[in-house]
Amino acid sequence: MKRLMQIFASFAMLLPVVAWAEPQKGGVIDVATIGEPPTLDPMASTADLVGIVTQNIYETLYTFDKDWGVTPLLAADMPKVSGDGLTYTIPLRTGVKFHDGSDMDSADVVASLQRWMKVATRGKQAAEVIKAVDAPDANTVKITLGKPFAPLLSLLSLNNAAAIIIPSENAGQDPLTSFVGTGPYMLKDRKPDQFIQLVRFDAYKSRDGEPNGYGGARKQYLDEIRFVPVPDPNTRVEGAVAGQFAYVDSLPVESFAKISSGKTKPVILKPFGWPVFVMNTKQGLNADIRIRKAIQAALAPNDMLLAAFGSPDFFAVDGAMYPQGYKWHTETGTEPYKPEGDTEAAAALLKEAGYDGSKPLRILTSRQYEFHYKMAQVAAEYLKAAGFKVELDVVEWATLTKNRTDPALWDIYITHSPFLPEPSLTGIMSDTSPGWWVSDRKHKVLDAFNAEPDPAKRVELWAPVQQAIYDEVPAFKVGDFNALAAQAPNLQGVTPAPWPYFWNAYLEGK
Amino acid sequence: MLRSILNRLLGMIVVMALVVTIVFVIVRVTPGDPAAVMLGPDASAADIAALRTKLGLDGSIVEQFGRYVLDLIKGDLGQSIFLGEPVTSALAQRAEPTFFLTVFSLIIATLIALPVGILSAYTRGSIFDQAATTVAMFAASVPSFWLGLLLIQFFAVRLGWFDTSGYGGPGASFADRLAHLVLPALALGLVSSALITRFTRAAMLDVLNDDYVRTARSKGMSEWRVVLKHAFKNALIPILTVIGLTAALLVSGAVVTETVFGLPGVGSLVVSAVLRRDYPVIQGALLVIAGLYVLVNFVIDMLYLAVDPRVRY
Amino acid sequence: MAAISNPQLAEPAMLSRLMGRPTAAVGVLILIIIALAAILAPVIAPYAPTKLSIASRLHPPSFAHLFGTDDLGRDVFTRMLYAARTSLSVGFAVVIFASIIGIVLGLASGFFRKLDAPVSRLIDAMMAFPDILLAIALVAALGATAFNVVVALGIVYAPRLARVVRASTLVIRELPYVEAARALGVPTPTILVRHVLRNVTSPLLVQGTFIFANAILAEAGLSFLGVGISPDIPTWGTMISVGRQYMDQAGWIMMFPGAAIVITVLALQLVGDGLRDLLDPRLAKDI
């Protein structure tokens, strides 16, 4: 709740006070995005961009409400979970139509979930514990698990590598070629690198009640939403200043002042996510935990964040994996996180590890996100001060995503993530994701966390996981950072969100 | 004559084969993985390997080359890995902005270059001539992307006369689309005007000293007519040749300019394809551009041959 | 072709004649100043090029920081000096590399009739690619290091030089004294080096100067597109590309390196023009 208050406060502060007129139907908005999505099949990709665009087209059984709790979307209600936590019985809503005019029923859901378990990265993760998905009747789906698995509903709710529901006859397509969903907007036209045009789906059946985060009612005020790829961040800033778009996603926070003086208003999402230095625990220098501890001591998050984001208004020096306001927030284990770094301690640890300075520490990064690269530069200086020999490997994003899967090529790679509603979905929690953090300690604490169905107890079980992350240093969380977007003054009803959505949005005076 | 044509034709085929091979080699030794880019940050290594097989990125390089040449002979440039459409249609869609950007830049460059070049030659050694020569050289020294940035800053952001980037939304009219080309064409045209200016000046100097110009003068024709009607007419052939040359250079300039202005043209398609490791698109675009160049050259050679049978290949 | 008319042009004489032309003299002077600044960078530079000072980031030009500071608080003037080293060396290395390939290809096709057709076709094929596109593809293939940028741009510009060398060689080969040398049984390598190579230096020099200018522009373009030299090595191109996002807050970060490019390229063109006028009397009329 506190987090929402923060969002609201930042939102209210930045937008001129407007009378909340009754939303009107109609209008077309152009939304500038960070690029062309690699696919319009949200099962096939974990990229945020794919989720942002396609969540308007397809829907999942569950989604997140404004407090990041799971709430039903295509499901009629929360599932009935058996006492042993192994059977989920999910009632479906009736009368839901696909964009092609056909009705959604349990056969579509079963086929879609099966495709999800086969195609989607997160679906495959779930497939390891799912024993069966079947349909007792036309409006019910039953999922049977091999062992209790608390993150299941979060996995079903997420919008990337998403468990979207599509007509059963399309579920055999791989890659997906018919972009038919149940969402409030449907695909009309797509010109790669120019625009993706979505139009209102008139037969859409909204949930009753009021909008609540991604859940609740979904209103279709706008006639059309066009996503325009603008890969260059400076071009997005210029477009925002010139008022060329109704909404501009993912702007460099340092352009805040410039945006403020322009024709669209800045919107800050605070906090948005966390930059992270992922360590290669499998091979090379960082296979040695003592080296990882030395890096943990050497890095100075304060300077790194300042260089990356310009002003403390846009970041927080914070070692906890989830910032205050999230139920997962805890300070457990964060003592080794030193805002100014501790060069002496790092040097001592390095000496202890027997590092002689001959082998360089290779930091893999890209300029796709300028702040990654800036943090790398500052980190390199601090690491050098502690006695490391450092090699910056600055490559294109395509090369980075390839090279990081090869443990022979890097010691640290830099990435970032939004604060995911379910901690176990974070990259380092998977044994196979680059970094390859595997240890008995990890498995012990994580298995306990994942098997516990009771939300309150899970919060308690999260602290030992965070403790393990700090003790074994599979990654270095740099801090929290805010995201900046820009919005036309007459565009209303858009809630700041890590994956902004445009149902419920409307144009004032339209 | 026929022998010449055949020789030249054979040469062209050899060149095309070389172009095809060069493109394939460059593209395939490129590190980075389209499958990894497509699947997003949290994909596993196994997923990536599976997608590679599906995209035909596995198999030995010889096998891949064989497949690629066979497809090429069938006129199939392949399927874009990233865009989910055939490379030919992706290229066809991007042709419009690139074509008009090149044409407009050329028009702007010529409109500046011809008068300045002619006047420079006519007033050879004058202050105007020296200034024009220096300015032309200065223009050729400015990085076109830098000029583009300044134009965006001033005309699009500050004055708001144009969109900062893009090529109009869905259903944008032809005129609206062309309006998006004004700033990029200006950036590219100004920078390329230098070459044409200097050639115009040189060609005009050549003919201004020729006998018939002097004769025309001595006949008491007005200077204006002497310069434009007689001299310029005769200087036109070399000038046109240079304009043609500049057009080829502009394709290169368009790559950077399209990226600066976010134009969905062939140049920016190649740049983004390189960043996305979209092999078929890089291959296809390079092939089509280089192929066009070779073809146009061939046609020009044939024209020369037709005009002057002494030319031999 | 015209270079043949004065094959024994001595270097010092050429320089003094070059300096006799005011525009070329200005060009030479500018180049000398820039080259000196680059060479003496460690002596002149008030700071270390990689010295970060996050607290004093984006400071405007002042006495402490002549050209201001960049996004990481580094001194822009210092980095400009070090960037001059990289940008000039890259440009120069491209000329050398392109010349080596160009000379080999050009001599081979111009002197040996059998090689002429295949080598010429190869040159034709390489010339068919727009230069920036070919450079982007090559750098992506080889990896974005300074060395590979040099290799890529060298490959891109080599065919132009090869054509120049081939054209000159074709003429020189038929000159009476070269034919005489051949008839006398002088070994081919000796002929190539003593007679042919010597006579192609003049057109090479002219072309080389322009390629130097083009290479500096191309390097900046590649860096701007994000496919060039690793951005932590200061070059004028990488400085512009980093400074772009601070265009209004801290315009100096990209203005000064941009100006450096314009001035250097302009100077190179002035010199190239002067050289062409001197060495190529037919064209001296004034292109």
Automatic annotation (TrEMBL), chain A:
Signal peptide: 1-21
Protein name listed in UniProt: ABC transporter substrate-binding protein
Pfam families per record: SBP_bac_5 (PF00496)
Source taxon at top rank: Bacteria
CDD domains for the chain: PBP2_NikA_DppA_OppA_like_16 (cd08502)
Domain Solute-binding protein family: 70-415
Gene Ontology CC annotations of this record: ATP-binding cassette (ABC) transporter complex; outer membrane-bounded periplasmic space
Alphabetical GO biological process terms: peptide transport
Keyword match Signal: yes
Family in the record: Belongs to the bacterial solute-binding protein 5 family.
Entry keywords, A to Z: Signal
A GO molecular-function descriptor: peptide transmembrane transporter activity
Subcellular location: Periplasm
SUPFAM superfamilies recorded: Periplasmic binding protein-like II
Automatic annotation (TrEMBL), chain C:
Any single Pfam family the record assigns to this protein: OppC_N
Subcellular location, record wording: Cell membrane
Location of the ABC transmembrane type-1 domain: 84-272
Main location: membrane
CDD domains assigned: TM_PBP2
Transmembrane segments: 24-48, 88-112, 132-158, 204-230, 250-272
Topology of the protein relative to the lipid bilayer: Multi-pass membrane protein
GO cellular component, one term: plasma membrane
Coiled coil: none
Keyword Cell membrane: yes
Superkingdom: Bacteria
GO biological process terms, semicolon-separated: peptide transport; protein transport; transmembrane transport
PANTHER family for this protein: D,D-DIPEPTIDE TRANSPORT SYSTEM PERMEASE PROTEIN DDPC-RELATED, OLIGOPEPTIDE TRANSPORT SYSTEM PERMEASE PROTEIN APPC
Family of the protein in this entry: Belongs to the binding-protein-dependent transport system permease family.
Official protein name in the record: ABC transporter permease
